[in-house]
Amino acid sequence: MFNRTMSSLRGALGLGAILLLSISLISPAEAAPTTSSPTASSPRANVKVLPGLQPCVDQAVKQKLRQWVCNAEGLTINKDAAGRQVNTFVKKKSTDYTTAVTQPRTGIVTQADDYDSWCEFGTICNRKITNYIAETKGNAAYGDQRGAIGSYDAILRTSLNGRQAQWKATVIWDNGPRLTFSSTQVQCTEHTFIPLICGNHKLNNVSPTTTSPGFRVDYPLIYGNRLNNSNNYHGSFQTSFTPAGYPTYKAANLAAMTFNCSGTAICKFP
After folding, report:
1. Topology of the domain covering 51-261
2. How far are the Cα atoms of 15, 32, 142, 166, 233 from residue 267, in angstroms, in the given order?
3. Is the pTM of this model over 0.70?
4. Which of 23, 40, 57, 195 has the most other CB atoms within 10 Å of its CB?
5. pLDDT in tens, 176-231
């Protein structure tokens, strides 16, 4: 029937009209398929956010921030809702998500294999192992205006040797795209009325790339400067990271436990 109709119309309408009529008779099912992409407000599936970080993530999404990092201390804004590079930090309110906690550790004092299971609630945790060894762990999530993209953990182990601190840093990829960490250092801070920097110890000889869930990378041991003053001190883990397919993020500092170097005595944790 369709062929007879087309034959009768060929003379009267001409080829151009026949083409128009043919296009109009194509059913929607026969049309070329279209692809759809997630809307700007749609969340990403399979991105785990730890409970302690969820309020911070919600705040970032509510403000439609283009690039942000959350940890237990607050929200690091790399780019605001307009896409401007601002690099500001908003400290969490006391009534917000879970505060930092101290967790004891028993048993051997060497670096244990519990780094990926200890302190997994979206917090910053400290644990004193001996008077001369302590560990600090922080969870972090990062994302954009659509929500969280992924998360990772950072651990900083402080070992005291006389009047010198030694640090061992570890990063663990939890979920999201592959991560490459860069511009990493441990900064030593002396607690004075105006805090003094007692050393910036760069880790530019490695830029670890995490490639599978739970994958852990240990940085080389850092030897700090001799600490001559009678004061309190601490080290901070500082880093940037680049998720595959996304721009580089700047994370908030992870401050390790404070230790004391009193008088001329050896340094200790309180």
Report:
1. Immunoglobulin-like (2.60.40)
2. 93, 72, 36, 12, 9
3. yes
4. 57
5. 888 889 899 999 999 999 999 999 999 865 566 666 556 888 888 999 999 999 99
